[in-house]
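Researcher: Following up on the earlier apo prediction. This time include the ligand. It's adenosine-5'-triphosphate, with the SMILES given after the sequence.
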Amino acid sequence: MSTPALHIAGLSHRYGARLALDGVSLNVAPGEFRVLLGPNGAGKSTLYGLLTRLLACQSGAIELFGQTLSAPAMAGLGVVFQQPTLDLDLTVEQNLAYFAALHGLRGSERRARIDAELQRMALVERRHERVRLLNGGHRRRVEIARALLHRPRLLLLDEATVGLDMPARRFLVEHVHRLAREEGLAVLWATHLIDEVRADDHIALLHQGRLLASGVAGELTAQAECDSLAQWFDRQTGKEDSACLWP
Ligand SMILES: Nc1ncnc2c1ncn2[C@@H]1O[C@H](COP(=O)(O)OP(=O)(O)OP(=O)(O)O)[C@@H](O)[C@H]1O
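Model: Understood. Below is the ligand-bound prediction.
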């Protein structure tokens, strides 16, 4: 078996008395689009905080491509946080150039990487516009383009589509799926939006800090004899008292 892009074993995290993550174990393989599905407060952002070392690891282990979470291993990581982090007063291109420079990209290589990501995100026409003028969907496109400039092998996205309309969400979900499928990028896509999950997506269900289930969405739904993933999700998270067979 190849080394997982991401390996999480027995990860727990406390904020004082509150246990936000409780023994979470999870792998993401190269080229896999893995959905981390969880309602608000499930612990998704805490997990992302630990994966990006914004939070110090209290217990458990995290490995990126078989290496501990050190600076060299993290060079292969791309991240889109839940809260947007673009500079609204810089142009699209300036935002990308600044970040590329932080990653040590220079000169023609930097220009080529920026051009390529703008092209893929259909943002070429907007490159000289200030980000403040872009709608939410386009801002998120810029953030994803930025996260890919240094060619990471693992992309983490925390609720990247929150607040966007359906076409914008579809565009982003499809784009990131394509990156996994065609370029072998490993993806961990955190969301609480069931309609973003496809039947053939591999999901991990996080609820109140615990990983409740893991598997292919369509198979989990069928095994539980639910009519839909939404029904399965409600049942797993205790929102639905009755069995899925009798909606
Ligand atoms: N800094 C903090 N101090 C105390 N408790 C916190 C802190 N951050 C998060 N929590 C708590 O930890 C739990 C997990 O929160 P977290 O933000 O990781 O969940 P989430 O799945 O990302 O939810 P959301 O989608 O609402 O951001 C929640 O009960 C939350 O209230």
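Model: Residues 15, 18, 20, 38, 40-46, 159, 192 surround adenosine-5'-triphosphate (CB under 6 Å).
Researcher: Noted. I'll compare it with the apo version next.
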